Amino acid sequence: MNKRRAKGWLGFLVIGAMVFFQPAAGQAAEDVIKIGVPAPFSGSAAEKGKHLKYGVMLAAQEINAKGGVLGKKIELVYADTEAKPEVGVSAYEKLITRDEVDFIVGEVNSHVALAVMDVVAKYGMPTLFAIPASDQLGEKILTNPEKYGCIYMCDIPVSRMQEGAFIFLEEALQEGKLKRKEKSAALVYEDSSWGRIVGETWKKSLEDRGWEIVLEEVTPFKESDYLSIVSKIRHLNPALVKIEITSLPAGVALSKQLYQAGITEDTDVFGGYYQKTKEFPQMAGPFAVGSFNVKEPYAPDWPSRLHNEYPEADVVASMMPYDSLHIMAEAIKRAGSREPDKVIEALGRTDHEGVFMRTVFDSKTHFAKVGKEYKLFGVALFTKEGLGLIWPKDYAEIHFF
Fold first, then answer.
1. How far apart (Å, rounded) are the C-alpha atoms in residues 387 and 275?
2. What gap in Å lies between CA 394 and CA 170, rounded to an integer?
3. Are strands 127-129 and 386-391 parallel, antiparallel or unpaired?
4. Side-chain half-sphere of 47: how many Cα atoms within 13 Å?
5. DSSP E strands: which ranges in 56-102?
6. Which sign, positive or negative, has the C-alpha torsion 185, 186, 188, 192?
7. What is the DSSP letter of 139?
8. Using CA atoms, how far apart are residues 9 and 330, in angstroms rounded to an integer?
9. What are phi and psi of 336, to 5 degrees?
10. What pLDDT does 224 receive?
11. What span, in angstroms and rounded, lies between the C-alpha atoms of 70 and 328?
12. DSSP track, 364-382
């Protein structure tokens, strides 16, 4: 091959390579900030993934409408984890290596989050888990803060989700808002990992605050006959009955039996998960009127803002994903860069007043801090219309204090 021909071929190859590797117009990586959004969009937890998506989409719309971040629009890249750890590992790898996302905001399930921590740590990917709240996440970060320092959690840990209830009870007692003044309680919780966590948390926390636990009953998961327990409660006559049951039929049965025994007339009842199901108000609502339950506080205008764009979105399930994307966007702005190390450092300095109260991260566990000045689950009163928030007072939907 002569020199001219060789030179011509070389030029052709160089031009061809330039064309082949040139990003498509409008899709250049430097024109957008790509945020991976992993969640279960199919399978048994797909409903939760759908509401997570509504939250991040609304946040992205708002951020982009104001000019984006660092002058660049946010582009959301979704990945389906199917709520399965092994699928989650592959999905996160794909987001990072093939989709080349800049950051990750999302996730619903704690068991998936635990499985993918090593993936994001390997790449130093700034990651904000929107909903996962297992204490094991913070514990894993504590084992190697340098390795897992890129990971933060928007929610508060499971072990502290009941904390607001205890603060509420103390305030309600002091202000004479409970039916009785004495500190005696009966605990009834189901034989499940969630039931035992909540039951044991209530026992320790109430005793630490001077309450006497006069009865502690662990029941089968789907029990329907509580007459023997109701009889014990009536005999012991505690000022408070705390129930933690996730089974709807069991919760309905116990609610009816407590009411029919006349216990709810002068004893306060603090209900469990069963009260939050859609079917409960129709099945046993009248028997639960006047009882308390845990409920997440949120900004008063949040439901209308969300439903104006996404009428089907769940107010609670969408709020932390929404806050999470705003928190990540603010961290990028504070960093003034997309460099991972700078954004991770900026995440640690988060102080965000969001839909779900104020997010400030614990420097050790990387969970959101818990407290009245930060973030906690509030308390709601069950009425004919369902659960209405009564505490914290600043977020109250129903006047109680």
1. 8
2. 17
3. unpaired
4. 4
5. 73-80
6. positive
7. H
8. 49
9. 65, 20
10. 82
11. 13
12. TT-SBPBSTTSB--EEEEE
Condensed to tens digits (0 to 9), the pLDDT of residues 122-159 reads 999 999 999 999 999 999 999 999 999 999 999 999 98
Which pairs with CB-CB distance under 8 Å and at least 24 residues apart come from 366-369? 366/137, 366/138, 366/141, 366/148, 366/149, 366/151, 366/152, 366/153, 367/133, 367/137, 367/138, 367/153, 367/155, 367/156, 367/157, 368/153, 368/154, 368/155, 368/156, 369/156
Domains of the chain (ranges; CATH) run: 29-158+299-359 (3.40.50.2300), 163-296+378-395 (3.40.50.2300)
Task: Report the alpha-carbon distance of residue 37 to residue 79 in Å, rounded.
Answer: 6
Burial category of 128 from C-beta neighbours within 10 Å (exposed 0-12, middle 13-18, buried 19 and up): buried
**Residues of the chain falling short of pLDDT 70:** 1-29
Model pTM above 0.90:
no
Rg (CA), the chain: 25
Tell me the C-alpha distance between 168 and 170, whole Å.
Answer: 5
**What ranges make up the beta strands (E) of 22-93?**
32-39, 73-80
378-383 and 386-391: which strand pairing?
antiparallel
CB 125 within 8 A of CB 340: yes
**In DSSP terms, which residues pair with 151 in a beta bridge?**
127
Cα–Cα nearest to 132, from 365, 398, 388, 391: 365
Through-space distance between the first and last CA atoms of the chain, rounded to whole angstroms: 92
Among residues 297, 366, 277, 302, the alpha carbon closest in space to that of 55 is found at: 302
* pLDDT for position 28: 55
Identify the pLDDT of residue 345: 98
